[in-house]
User: Fold this.
Amino acid sequence: MDYDFDLFVIGAGSGGVRAARIAASHGASVAVAEESRVGGTCVIRGCVPKKLLMYASRFRQQFEDAAAYGWEVAAEKHDWGTLIKAVDAEVFRLESIYHSLLSNAKVKTIIGRAQVAGPHTVSVDGKRYSAKVILIATGAYPVKPDTPGAEFMMTSNDVFTLAAAPKRIVIAGGGYIACEFAGIFNGLGTRVTQIHRSEQILRGFDDDVRNHLASEMRKSGIDLHVSTTITEIVRHGAEYAVHLSSGEVVHADAVLAATGRRSNTAGLGLEAAGVAVDDEGAIIVDAGSRTSVDHIYAVGDVTNRLNLTPVAISEGHAFADTVFGNRKRNPDHSNVPSAVFSQPPVAMVGVTEAEARATYPEIDVYEASFRPMHAALPHRDEKVLIKLIVESATDKVVGAHMVGADAGEIIQGIAIAVKAGLTKADFDATVGIHPTIAEEFVTLRK
Ligand code: NDP
Assistant:
């Protein structure tokens, strides 16, 4: 049977674009539909603009420290409008690159809201296209908690369109997004109150890392409340009264919900097509990203596996190689490193100490906490944490964790060693680069 396309991709984010380009490079005719902007969450309203805001916010500490190094710096004022304009321009530039990548690969880009309209049919704003294979890569969206007054909360999507930085903000949540924006607004001079419902931030991370980051965030001026919930948000003119389970009331100009994300599956026609989703609306897939329908696949956050851009990209690439490149392979979700761009940042690869204790009969834990050299002259009370977890029987390093400047940059390198299954003896045999923070990873002794 003849189809309009070999592959129709719904969603032009990180996973969808990679899958479309690779499938096209294998000779497939490909279309991709996008209802918003090409580039998806990461490029348009996630990783990229967030990291640029993070860079902007770091200057405050650098200005403060500069005097200790002999500089006279008089930069007290930050202009949010200038920052957002520059960020928008960079996002626009990257979006254009994504458009070119698709057109150079001969992928047809269709702007509009797509729906699965039949076993091999996709409709985009009423126009129907047939395709041999359909890939769903529609990502996820931020959700607000079920709190009275939640309608007054903004989400991470809204931060990038704020007309001005709020003077006071309450941030709900203790995950990646909450910790990252707490650091950003704090650095830009906003008074930040972070409210987290559990006993510690960053569930799923190593406990020492969680405690260390919470302590550093508090030292930097963030008013972090744990084991606390928001019971109600009441609007009084231009400000909000945020009522807490502790009985306290915090007054703020903005309230940010950073309480998790959900797969974008509503209204996609999945039920009619027979594509199974789980209780949270995420598409259920097998190890090769195939859904419950043979020729319909899904990659990225919509599948709620490991919700990280590089993972979506690798899932999209593996799908395209398997289905169109005659090279069957599954995406590899083991030892995926990740970073939280909090201030200080956190990064990790492999298992936490608690996971290691539950997995291996015996482990060795190496840990160091120290003041980094750059904090010495300003007498800044800043501590780095680094930690290695080793399986005793094999001497393999099975987890590496860090809280401190450039953690993401450092752990990216360490992740190669962990992925390669190197041992503590291999780390010890490596000569350090002095003076660096990272050298501690090769000089850790019991
Ligand atoms: P996370 O799942 O990381 O965190 C959600 C937070 O909200 C948790 O602290 C959770 O608390 C809390 N929470 C959930 N529901 C409620 C509720 N009803 N009321 C109060 N608090 C609640 O989600 P994020 O939104 O921060 O990020 C989504 C995902 O996006 C991340 O998990 C990550 O995969 C990805 N991401 C990655 C980034 C990176 O790589 N740097 C950056 C940003 C996002 P509890 O711990 O108690 O469950």
